[in-house]
Fold these 2 entries.
Entry 1:
Amino acid sequence: VANRLESFKSKIKDTVLFVGSLNERKGLVETLEIFKNIIDFIPKEVVFVIIGDGELKYKIEKFIQKNPNLKTRIILKGRITNSDKLNEFFNRSLISISMNQAGLSVLHSFANGVPFLTLENSISGGEKWNIINNTNGYLCANNTEFKDKLLYYINNPQICIQMGENAYEYYNNKATPELMVTNFLKSFQYFNHVSS
């Protein structure tokens, strides 16, 4: 991950962040409903920032239009590939979320010191198994638990900051690309040796 930052040191934490393609399988429509249902129970400065592009963009825009009270609370930024620009959003993030898919965005969040919230049964290439409940994020059993945890974490920024620091350290010690390559090579050498 280019230009990593220790976002847990940031003084301003007012964002729930989603970074990824905007498609149905990610559960964004359900996530928007959850955010709508907790809006009156979270600090007024907290916003949900959605970074990405895809087929769901217009559905999200319509959702915001139908819920005028969310117009300043749900911010659709479009696709951002510049790491410095992305870092501006990670820096303000309490937590990154993606209900139904937890792929490389988990590691991207961890690399920048931001915890991650998703469902236990989310689609993943294995990245979600880096999440340790209440340490660097949370794997929720269902949508209700997801809503409850999101509400809890937003209202307890110090916990998010600590989990962000834990996520950053976890990434440094267990999930950098260099470590993954090293572990892959060790596994390959082990199995190659065993089979000969």
Entry 2:
Amino acid sequence: RWTHHLIVYQTNRQCTGKLRTCPINFKIFFDCAKQLPADISVLIRGDHGIGKSQSVYQLASYFNLPMVERRLSQMSEGDMIGLPKLDDKVTKFMPPDWYMKACTEPVCLFLDELNRATPEVMQAAFQIVLDRTLNGHKLHEGTRVYAAINTNGKYQVNEMDPALLDRFWATDLEPVDEDWFAWASTAIPACCRMLL
């Protein structure tokens, strides 16, 4: 079933020449995301507070991967690419610890608030998403990359380069009541569920 949703996505993308505008619910998203290979980066788009970040944590748990989350809106270029050092009369960049962890072991690397980042930080994210590398340091083959953004005109966000957007398997999430009830059945203590 997940392949059907991926085909519908690709067909819609090719026919319209625009980013996918047909939203999916969390169940379909999880069905598809669980089947994607580790080297496919996933972009989750939607309104704030619908559970985009929580869905990435659930996928990390499903894949049994440690979570490495970075809010790109709070990062500078140095936080992304690291700091320079002199090594045998040449300058090299020492990558940050979070990125090296994603290179040395499989993790769920979550780049949150991508479209609130500065252009320099977005360009570093572009290299991670496109090449799975940053300044010569390659991500572990088992590392999965996810990003999330808020969409529509009511947010103070930066425009994203279409070339960056094209490097993702992108999906617009629109939760339905069943999504919330499924989440609440495990997240809310049993004593409080009777109030729902």
